[in-house]
């Protein structure tokens, strides 16, 4: 009997992002990768009820945080408590995590080179600092896709004007870790529309010249 195919489900949730004394209204992409039986959530943003509904009766293997900004992690503890699934975050973003959740630590660290497996499909952790110190992307070679968090968007890199961010660092991460992926790789972003590596790669020098 052929196992059910792995698939990617997508939710958009709305809430706020707060850092450095400011607060902004945002809409976030929440990604679920798995099959009919098991799944990972990438970025539990804003609405634990909606994410739980999308999971359904599948086993949640973990809640992967692409980085520690509060709009990407605000619903993670509630979802973890509800499902028993661990929260995974790169240790260098724990300083950001604690701003939102001072009394609840992540459960497991993410490190560059880690491989997570769901429904027979590998998710490879790429440490891509710049938007934040511990930002990561998740590359699924078998699906020709990368979940880029807030590192790479349609039209350029993620924002680097706030604490714990660096424009030269995000450019290096994008150049060395993302633009080296196959050109046809679909980039599923933390906000807004998806894009393709081959559409973004030619514009790197423009981004460097404009400085954001």
UniProtKB/TrEMBL annotation:
Q: Which organism is it from?
A: Streptomyces niphimycinicus
Looking up InterPro entries in the UniProt record yields: MBL_Glyoxalase_II (IPR051453), Metallo-B-lactamas (IPR001279)
Q: Which residues form the Metallo-beta-lactamase domain?
A: 27-191
- What SMART domains would the database entry show? Lactamase_B
Q: What is the lineage of its organism?
A: Bacteria, Bacillati, Actinomycetota, Actinomycetes, Kitasatosporales
Q: What is this protein called?
A: MBL fold metallo-hydrolase
């Amino acid at each position: 009997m052929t196992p059910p195919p792995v698939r990617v489900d997508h939710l958009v949730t709305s809430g706020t992002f707060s850092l450095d004394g400011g607060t902004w209204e945002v809409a976030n992409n929440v990604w679920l990768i798995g099959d009919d039986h098991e799944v990972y959530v990438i970025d539990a943003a804003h609405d634990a009820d909606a994410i739980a509904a999308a999971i359904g009766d599948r086993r949640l293997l973990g809640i992967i945080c692409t980085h520690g900004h509060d709009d990407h992690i605000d619903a993670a503890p509630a979802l973890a408590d509800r499902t028993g699934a661990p929260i995974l975050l790169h240790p260098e973003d724990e300083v950001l995590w604690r701003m939102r959740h001072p009394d609840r630590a992540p459960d497991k660290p993410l490190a560059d080179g880690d491989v997570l497996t769901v429904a027979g499909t590998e998710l490879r952790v790429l440490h891509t600092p710049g938007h934040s110190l511990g930002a990561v992307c998740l590359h699924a070679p078998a699906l020709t896709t990368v979940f880029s968090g807030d590192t790479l968007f349609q039209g350029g890199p993620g924002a680097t004007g706030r604490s714990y961010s660096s424009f030269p660092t995000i450019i290096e991460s994008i150049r060395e870790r993302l633009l080296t992926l196959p050109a046809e790789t679909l980039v599923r972003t933390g906000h807004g529309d998806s894009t393709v590596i081959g559409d973004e790669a030619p514009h790197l020098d423009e981004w460097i010249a404009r400085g954001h």
